[in-house]
Amino acid sequence: MAIALIPTMKIKYRYKVVLSFMVVLAATTLLFTLLMINKEGRLKIERLVFAMQPYADILYNNLSHPVDSSSARMAIESLDGILPAGIRVTILDKEGWVFYDNFSAKDSITDNHLHRPEIMMALSSGSGHALRYSSTLNAKYLYYAKEFPDLYIRTAMDYKKNIYPAVKGEKSWQAYLLLIFAVSVLVLAYISRKLSKPYYALKEFVERVRHNEDDYDSVRFPKDELGEVGEQIMQAFREMDNSKRYKQQLTHNVAHELKTPVTGIRGYLETLLQEEEMDKEQSRFFLERAYSQTLRLTSIINDISVLNKIEEGYDKFEFEKINLLKCLKEIEGDLAFKLEEKKIRFYAEVRGSLEVEGNYMLIYSLFKNLIDNSIDHAGEGLEIHIKERGVSDSEVYLSYYDTGKGVPEDHIHRIFERFYRVEKGRSRKSGGSGLGLSIVKNSVLLHKGKITASNRSGGGLQFDFTLSLQMGKS
Length: 474
Prior knowledge:
54% of the residues lie in helices and 16% in strands. It has helices at 13-62, 69-78, 117-125, 159-168, 172-210, 225-274, 280-312, 324-334, 336-341, 360-377, 409-412, 426-430, 436-446, and strands at 88-92, 98-101, 127-134, 139-147, 152-158, 320-323, 345-349, 355-358, 383-391, 395-402, 451-455, 461-468.
């Protein structure tokens, strides 16, 4: 026997919110309505009881004493027009036995009334009332009883005919309550829609992540507190994703860069080991090539170490006052052989008194890598200029440029990337690590500055950057 499976309907989050609020609102409204009806009913019954109180005194004063059923009937009949129509009057002796009731024959009432709620209250406090069912008349009545020296007088009114219409009274407030409930539901629907927007946006974002989609820009969060949280979550994930891809790319690049010198060193050493009859001059050639590759390997490792240290934060470095002109002259001296070999003229147009607060090793590395980049890639017979453009309260403005061949415009925006090459194999041929300009940018950023690169109209590559005068200021 096949069993049919009935699919369960999944309620949307927004409707769950609305439904939950509606249940709470409906329960609150119902409870409030019941309390209001109960309170209103009690107040109106108390007013009716208060209105019934004078009739007991009127009846007692109109009776002849001692009282019997005949004189009681005559007294009540004499009050026709004074007593309300349909009022029930019962007269009881002090023992609780009925000897007159204008709605029933005396002989038909055989039970003692001393234990009736209204009589018990009258016995204890002089008067009492009760809303209860009458077994004699098979109807619900509002009773009021009062104790007198020789008897009890009880008046009663039919609930259905006389009491309920008065208790029911004006129900316009209930209509207003229903209107308020309807408006509240509409407001809740609107609020829930607003509240559910971050949920659906976050759900869309999660779906895109699950399906390995990289485009998160189309996910729109509302401009509120929850939307801000969603944006922060998405931004944090984007940063984590970018960091992951960056680390993967970096690992790939490092492995690729290290592979070349390691392979070269291995090849040269294997040749030396296998060729036992190699002459001394050829053997020295292979050793020099292996040594050259070890220098390149050391350069890559050192540059990676510097970049990693920079990324750890400026608190990893010691800072001091640095005279920029002295630092540039030291670099010029260290690179004098290379500059002369390439017929490059170097000009440092910086005041001798200009000082910045920073890490000497990084400032030295910043300018040296810029100069090395020009020496290795800009060509021969050119000029290098480092100029002081101006000084503000917090930073100095500097320009570095050469008069070489520059960089193709479609590569300018990527020259600060690690291991990025404008020309394939360019860094390997020149012996560089491919990290020089990345160290330049990160050194500037660590010194709370900014840097841009552009091709000069007269030829050559220009870097405009700032350095903070004091590392304690932003």
